[in-house]
Amino acid sequence: MITRYSRPEMVEIWSTSSRFQTWLDIERYACEAQEKLGVIPKGVAKQIEKKGKFEIDKIDEIEKEVKHDVIAFLTNVAEHVGPKARFIHQGMTSSDVLDTCFNIQLKNASKILDQGLTRLLKALKKRALSSKNMVCIGRSHGIHAEPTTMGLKFAYAYAEFKRCKERLAFATNDISTCKISGAVGTFANIDPKVEEYVAKKMKLNVETISTQISPRDRHAMYFSVLGVIASSLERVSVEIRHLQRTEVREAEEKFSEGQKGSSAMPHKRNPVLTENITGLARLVRSSVIPALENVALWHERDISHSSVERVIGPDATVTLDFAINRLASVIENLVLYPKNMLKNLNQLGGLHFSQGVMLALTQAGMSREDAYRVVQKSAMEVWHNKSDFKELLSLDKNVNKYLNADQIELLFDIDKHTKNISYIFDRVFK
Length: 430
Fold this sequence. Notes:
This protein has 20 helices and six strands. It is mostly helical. Strand 3, helix 8 and strand 4 form a beta-alpha-beta unit.
């Protein structure tokens, strides 16, 4: 997590002060529940609310001696609360606080990620509708295939990120659990009603069953979803990077006034934003494997997962948040070149109509194998000599046996490739 790729609102979720404040809230709510149950005297929670505070520097100092962050925290809080502090953390274990807090942080991070995805979806929909019928060449293996529209590219991305938004919602709900069940999850020294009370106060679900820790399969799912979102960001970014290549120039990141592309070459206009997103996506995905490996812990608990989560929690969410909003900005400001799209479309003399010709020949009675061979023969001539595909077909005696000039002409109608665009859009944006 570095300032260059961080947005303040997401960073705040992972700040030390925010984390300790959440710890204090959990402990206070637990005391409120314990008071209601008659386990501890009345007034403890109020005392925490009134006098409970902490000093980060002091906690760090205490931790150097005790080698335990939660104990250091509780010791510092007790200095302010006074004698009633002895009732804080009654029947609880460290993971009751740590895991519940971590899940709250992930839940809060998800809210910001969801906002970013909403912004991105809005931008993609707007661009999809505005370029719905903007014809361009579709490519497979990087090679010209058949016509499509730029609008369909945006619509495809819209549907993809809509799925990402839904996956994030599921993973967030799955991770939003409260665990306050004691040393090995048996509630031996704390009533289950405490967990229920704190969960309600913190707007979390009650963990179904736990050991000393919350089950890490939930976290594995959560970070896997973040990885999928990152991969989708990269897919769209790579698409833009390809479209911005000099030889293609169908789309381009906005190049602002005063911007410089190269320290050596003044003419350069590089896709630096989408290249950056590609790199950030790699970083987010790097958290997935460690999260999966955190599932397999020893018996009721070990702490091999702890150091991992202290890193991947903030790093993955902060980085993904930045990448989502960067791509949203790229889409909002993307420059399109329709003339270049048409130029590229017609670069190969009409070869993008080859499938329609082959199918027409088969429908007219020619075998598929012969139709493929005949059409390919003319197509290869275009590849080598930059001829006109339609003209070559019209001169081919094998073709003329089955198709007349008017029939061939109809096969080169671009509208055939765009006739179902509205149908697809209706499915995407219903």
